Amino acid sequence: MRRKPGSLVPLEVSILEAGMVLLSQSETVFHGYQLAKEMKALQGAAFRTAYGTLYRTLERMEQAGLLESHWEDPTIAEAEGRPRRRFYTITGAGEAAFQAAKPVPETNPLFVPRPGTT
Amino acid sequence: MTTSQTSFGVKLVSSWSRLYTVGLPDGVRSGRRDEIASDLYEQSVDNARCPSLEVLLPLIRGIPDDLAWRTSKLAVGWWLAEFAVLVAGMMFCGIVGVLSTLYITGLLAGMPAIVLGTALGASLGLWMAIALRDHRPLDLSAPKSIHVLNAHPEGDFPMTRSFRTYAGISAIVAGVIQIFVFAAYATGADINPWAAPATMLTEVDANNVAWGVMTLGWATIPFLLVPVFVVLATDSGSAAPQWGFCATVLVAIHAALNAVAFGFAMLLIPLASDFASAAPSEQVSLLQQTELVQHVWQLFRGMAGAPLVIAMFVAAFICFRARVFPRWLGVVAVVLGLQFVPPLGGEFILEPPAMAAWALGTGFILLRRSGPSLRSSTVAATESA
Question: Do B41 and A82 make contact, defined as CB atoms within 8 angstroms?
Fold first, then answer.
């Protein structure tokens, strides 16, 4: 499926949405699993996003300038006895793309606010 | 769900990530593996008793994306090679299945197997050439090694050195096996597939061990040549590697058909054993079975020859055009290819020595070049150019 240049596919919107939620929870960066968990919670899905799908999309979004990533200092991971993490954050372009793509809240078509009342 | 089931799922995801990243540049490979390892670790810490389905389902659903991601990381030539092998293999299996059925049921019985095989091999070669025509990863006017053009900014392909060593060893093993096969052939262990069924069964019964070993060797050699052709393609420099990849696919097809042919031929050993001790009334039934096996053996052997002829001619073309392989290897490849052309091959007198010489020669050349010297020299040559 081809898409218009600059537009986001639903999965990318979900990633940005989950990322925004994580960043609003006093996180400065997030890693892949956090993102998968948050997406699952937001969508109320039974299963998380597939590994291959998630990381391929993250890479594509990073190449598009919507996300930025960096690897954790290996000494920290070693000290904590776990694999090193790859941290992501949303760029300004990513935030703008999300704002442009996020679904518009449903409004009552019969209710039209008068000018100056909103 | 138990923890052992979960850890099985984690191990499976981890093994799969190691598998689909094989052969990719160092940085790309380790990055993806580390990211998956971190994800699995966080998931297991977050939910120590997470069911294995929570791990396995995302694994299965993500496989197409994993493969697509791998494809995007491969150099053009490798992508084409993997894709071409997959498509050609699937198509060929289908065609061979249909033709075999038609042949066995007698609908194609009037057509000699060798004609059918040659037509099929030629069609496939033509199709491959057309399919890959627009995918020229190299500027044919520039004598550069494909390794230079495929060098990834995140690191060189790890196969460039290790795979050439592996292919070299593989070629030498093929050459040595060919010498043993030749020795068995010289002692009269070969069986004529076009002999009368009764004669054939008598010959098989008399020589079953020597013939069996020789046949096994013959069936193994083409498989050992597949990695050699892969390196011929990647090392072909300006000699149009797409032809090298076509040849690789054709050799793989030859290997598969050859294995089926000789696999069927092996069925003659128990038939020959039964035939020797059977009553005359039972012998008629055994002869009918032999005739059927013989038909399939002839068909597959005939079909197996055509792809190898084309592949050897392509190998010769690469040796003549590319600067990294000596021309005498090209001459040997032509001689070898001609041995599989029915009117010229005859009793395959020159095939064993030509195959042994070509495999051993290529093998030693590849081993000599398995160090970093080729890449260093080509990089230096490119930079100076």
Answer: yes
Q: What is the pLDDT of residue B94?
A: 64
* Interface ipTM: 0.84
- Interchain contact, B62 vs A86, CB within 8 Å: no
Q: Does A40 lie at the interface with B, CB-CB under 8 angstroms?
A: no
Name the residue of chain B whose CA is nearest to A48's CA. B58
Whether residue B58 and residue A51 make contact (CB cut-off 8 A), yes or no, is yes
Q: Does A87 touch chain B (CB under 8 A)?
A: no
H or E element at residue A93: helix A92-101
With an 8 Å Cβ cutoff, is B47 touching chain A? Answer: no
Average pLDDT over residues B325-340: 82
| C-alpha–C-alpha distance, residues B274 and B263, integer Å | 18
Q: In one letter, which amino acid is B87? A: V
For A30, the enclosing helix (H) or strand (E) is: strand A30-31
pTM of the prediction?
0.52
Beta-ladder partners of A70: A87
| Residue B5 distance to chain A (closest CA, Å) | 17
